[in-house]
Specification:
Elements lengths: L4 E6 L8 E7 L6 H11 L3 E7 L9 E10 L4 E2 L3 H13 L8 E5 L5 E6 L5 E4 L5 E3 L2 H15 L9 E3 L3 H9 L2
Parallel strand pairs: 2-3, 4-6
Antiparallel strand pairs: 1-2, 3-4, 4-5, 6-7, 7-8, 9-10
């Protein structure tokens, strides 16, 4: 198997700092086991697989791609912030994409997110918003204990929420793998 790839570090101008990710562009979707093997071979915290999307825009400034995140340990992750930024930056910088202003990424978990070029040359990602609910008291109490242990003191926590839709589906999909 051959595929174009790059090592891209997010949140830095120095290639040896920041959060690294391997970006691999595939012509088609591959089985999870193959992606896990490729991710392991690249030995990076995150391997980001970019594939063509069946959903395309009529707007020539919008590019659409499928995207999938696999950790070095083979975990199929629903989303990865630094991997998204790294993939978008690399795609924006390709010569054939010079007119592209927005990239729509589609994940197999469902949510779509967008990346756009900032006028200052930065890449900005727009993640799907999640609805928030209160954390159940017993779960909250357990988290507070761990936070207090980590800080070595009682920490005042004013609010604790957790997201539901669209990422609730992501969690259940991940646990099935």
């Amino acid at each position: 198997m051959t595929a174009p790839f790059a090592f891209v570090s997010a949140f830095t101008d120095d290639p040896f700092r920041g959060n690294p990710a391997a970006i691999i562009v595939l012509d088609s979707k591959l089985p999870l086991e193959t992606l896990q093997n490729v991710a392991s071979t690249f030995n990076q915290p995150m391997a980001v697989f970019v594939t063509p999307s069946s959903v395309q825009s009529d707007d020539p400034t919008i590019l659409s791609h499928g995207i999938r995140f696999i950790t070095i340990k083979g975990t199929d992750s629903a989303i990865c912030g630094h991997g998204s930024l790294a993939a978008a930056k690399w795609l924006f910088d390709l010569p054939q994409n010079s007119a592209i202003e927005v990239i729509h990424f589609y994940t197999h978990f469902g949510p779509i997110f967008k990346a756009r070029k900032d006028p200052r040359g930065f890449v900005v990602i727009q993640l799907p918003a999640a609805s928030l609910i209160d954390v159940p008291v017993e779960e909250r109490d357990g988290i507070v204990v761990h936070v207090n242990e980590a800080f070595g003191r009682n920490t005042a926590i004013k609010a604790m929420k957790k997201g539901i839709e669209p990422f609730q589906k992501c969690r259940s999909s991940i646990s099935q793998h």
